Amino acid sequence: MRSTKDTLNVPPRPVFFEELDLLGLNKFWKYPKSKEPLLWACDRRYFYKGEFVLEASGGNIYDDPKLIFTKVGEKLELEPIDLDELCKKNETKMFLLEHEALEFINTIYRRYRPNAAKKTITDMVDFQSLAEKQEKKTKEKYTVVKEDCDSFDIMPLEVAEKQGKQIMLNTKIEMFIASFSGGKDSQVVLDLVSRVIPSNYFLVIYSDTGYEIPPSLEIYEQTKKYYQKLYPDLQFYLSRNHQDVLYYWDKMGSPSRMHRWCCGVMKTAPLYRFLKEIYGTGRQPNVLVFEGVRAEESNRRALYDRIGKGVKHNSVVNARPIFEWNATEIYLYLFMRQLPINKGYRNGLSRVGCSICPYSTPWSENIVEKS
Predict the structure, then answer these.
(1) Residues with Cβ < 8 Å from 189, sequence gap 6 or more?
(2) Closest C-alpha to 345, from 359, 358, 335, 356
(3) Lowest mean pLDDT: which of 31-40, 145-154, 286-295?
(4) 317: helix, coil or strand?
(5) Owning domain of residue 142
(6) How many distinct structural domains can be found in the chain?
(7) What is the separation, in whole angstroms, between the first and last Cα of the chain?
(8) Distance of alpha carbon 19 from alpha carbon 341, whole angstroms
(9) I need a surface site. Which of 50, 80, 206, 260 has the fewest CB within 10 A?
């Protein structure tokens, strides 16, 4: 459904002066160059103090979008949003939302944390392999469950779910990782994880594909400095392919929606190779990754489970603490916690990532070209 005058089909996002400058609105409106946002937008429809004031139509890497003003929006003098009041109004809802996510992280961490104090039966018996063998014999889905006494068992998945058992997707997790992309979602997940898991028990890894937008590389360094001041022993790592991205363009051609090799070659494969180097045993470690995937982002992602195994690699368990959050709630958390925000969002991008992407929209290409 399209947004209409009276209905909105997407959560509002904050709009900053940088985006207004890029659109050329400094010729029509008066506004301060404030740190705080000035108004809100749903996609490309802009709202000021609840009134629909502008729509930006069209635009691409070559042409600027057309600005369509409403009567209310023809001449405006904008005031910054009162973030203190905004946070106060949403305090109760956000408290419940963030503490549910914190509890989820704590539950997952305690479920998969290795017991370093004593040797457990899990070190001697590979329950995961036993479950897989049982599946082959019976043609029925089996799973590993964790009992209250920290012992493990295998049983049919249907039985485990009916009994409310703690289902284990991998009984030998050796590393906990907060995946950081430079985007708002991974920024929130990193902050949530840092509030639950001891800083010497997890790593932060940023995958540099070689064609990240400059603000994402800047926010990585800014974020690293921010958290290492709070937690000096928290380790940050950059994962990169050993070859330059243009090397693969020569070999495989430019990425496209039909031939999207870029993510696998420049992000996923280098990450897992890097994990082997960090772990230092020459084999692929079993890891649990906390990531900022949200159902709202796409129809495909909406079908994901909140926690799943083997999404991209069989040795990886993916946990998604903010899976049901919307974009407005993400920004509210950033404002309430006063966390760094990627400049790409201040320029008007709804998602940050690579400067060239097969899934880029003409709108984002226009912003990246101008930034």
Answers:
(1) 178, 179, 290, 291, 292, 321, 322
(2) 335
(3) 145-154
(4) strand
(5) 121-168
(6) 3
(7) 30
(8) 14
(9) 50
CB-based contact 190:99 (threshold 8 Å):
no
Tokens of 246: 């243009």
pLDDT digits (tens, 9 = 90+) for 124-138: 456 667 767 777 788
Q: Minimal CA–CA distance to 171: which of 315, 320, 321, 271?
A: 315
Are 65 and 44 contacting, i.e. CB atoms less than 8 angstroms apart?
Answer: yes
DSSP of 247-291:
HHHHHH-S--SSS--HHIIIIIHHHHHHHHHHH-SSSPPPEEEE-
Q: Whose structure tokens read 């998969």?
A: 112
Integer Cα distance of 188 and 331 in angstroms:
9
Neighbouring CB atoms inside 10 A of 91's CB total: 12
* 86 within some domain: no
User: Considering the entire predicted model, what is its pTM?
Assistant: 0.86
SS (H, E, C) 117-145: CCCCHHHCCCHHHHHHHHHHHHCCCEEEE
d(CA 107, CA 87): 27
Clarify whether residues 365 and 302 are in a common domain.
no
Percent of the chain with pLDDT over 70: 91
One domain, residues 196 and 336: yes
The phi, psi pair for 319, rounded to 5°, reads -115, 135
**What's the half-sphere exposure (Cβ side, CA atoms, 13 Å) at 43?**
14
User: HSE-up of 175 (CA within 13 Å, CB side)?
Assistant: 22
- Digit-coded pLDDT (tens) for 279-315: 887 788 889 999 999 998 888 888 888 988 767 777 8
